[in-house]
Amino acid sequence: MEKKGIDISHHQGDIDFEKLKGNIDFAMVRTSYGSFYEDRKYKQNIQGLQRVGIPYGLYHFSYATNVSDAKKEAKGFINLIKNYNPTYPVVIDIESSDRTNNVSKDTLINIVKTICNEIEEAGYYVMIYANLDYLNNKLNESSLDKYDKWLAQWSNKPTYNKTFGMWQYSSKGSIPGIKGNVDLNIAYKDYPSIIKEKKLNNYNNNVDNNNDNNEENNTNIINYVVKKGDTLIKIATKYKTTYQVLESYNNILNPNKIYPGQIIKIPWNLEIKPTSYVVKKGDSLSSIAKKYGVNWKTLYEKNKSVIGKNPNVIKPGQVLNI
Asked: Which residues contact 85 (CB under 8 A, 6 or more apart)?
């Protein structure tokens, strides 16, 4: 069997997923790169694919130059994807960059083995993405043969002489719903069936794929959006906890480096209530009010300028003061 797919990141901009549906069988979504930066479109892309029912996999572009960095990247990647159920592989993307060009072959192999092992032990179907040169000359090691490969070779036919499960054959594809070029892929395996049978990729978790993060529905979690000037200590103090708790809970690799727009998950001290709430599909003013123990009329008065004249109509994405 062969399935047609694409891989997407913020480079594709805003995608019209309704137009995309019917033109591809799957998509691979970049979630992150380096240690540790989130792709700014990954949540939007996953939500869009889920909404129209297109199966997807997830990948991380590694910048690791040693095993220590590799472990940090793997843990960050695993933490980022723990709330999703990808039915295609979870991939480590290994290719040349300014940071990794001088990494030796032996070190690179150890980096890949380390990341793959961490991902596999976390319960995911792991795959390695690399181009033909890397697979033939840098990653041609028998200890890596057990991991599935995603071959990048932009040509009329693949010439890699080992087994591979996916082939990226073009970087200049054109697909309805995407402006500009997009990478084109073929999958040779029935990954959804394989992953389901092996119960991998969070198969046993009760993850709600209609939400960007199922923890948002958990009243024991506060999602705090980092603002300019914030520090982890400052946030911890505000919510009557410690920076060590937040560092551990969010798998933050360097507590001195947080950035505006980053979401910090805070275990809810019941003495502290969130100051804001982002409306989701299916919410009503009364359900939000009940969740946070306030009167819906009071909530409406606080947010009249956001909601408008009709308290019965609230829209996903609106930010309400609690």
From this structure: 201, 202, 203, 205, 207, 209
**Cα–Cα distance list, 188 to 48, 59, 88, 184 (Å):** 24, 18, 12, 14
Beta bridge partners of 278: 319
Sign of the CA dihedral with 127 first, then 253, 42, and 168 last: negative
- Distance, CA of 183 to chain centre: 19
Question: Average model confidence (pLDDT) for the chain?
Answer: 88
Angle of helix 67-81 relative to helix 105-121, nearest 10 degrees, comes to 30
pTM above 0.85, yes or no: no
CB–CB of 321/304 below 8 Å?
Answer: no
pLDDT score recorded for residue 133: 96
Structure tokens at 55: 């199966």
Round to whole Å and give the CA distance between 233 and 28. Answer: 36
The fold for domain 273-322 equals Membrane-bound Lytic Murein Transglycosylase D; Chain A (3.10.350)
Of the listed ranges 110-114, 156-160, 279-283, the one predicted with least confidence: 279-283
Torsion, CA 9, CA 15, CA 20, CA 21, rounded to 10 = 90
What is the sign of the dihedral through the CA atoms of 308, 314, 316 and 319? positive
Q: Is the pLDDT of residue 246 over 90?
A: no
Q: Rounded to whole angstroms, what are the CA distances from 10 to 29, 206, 230, 273? A: 9, 28, 26, 34
Strand partners, 223: 265
- CATH code for the structural domain at 3-198: 3.20.20.80
Helix (H) or strand (E) holding 303: none
- pLDDT at site 223: 75
Domain 218-272 = CATH 3.10.350.10: yes
The residue type found at 147 is Y
Alpha-carbon gap, residue 11 to 175, rounded angstroms: 14
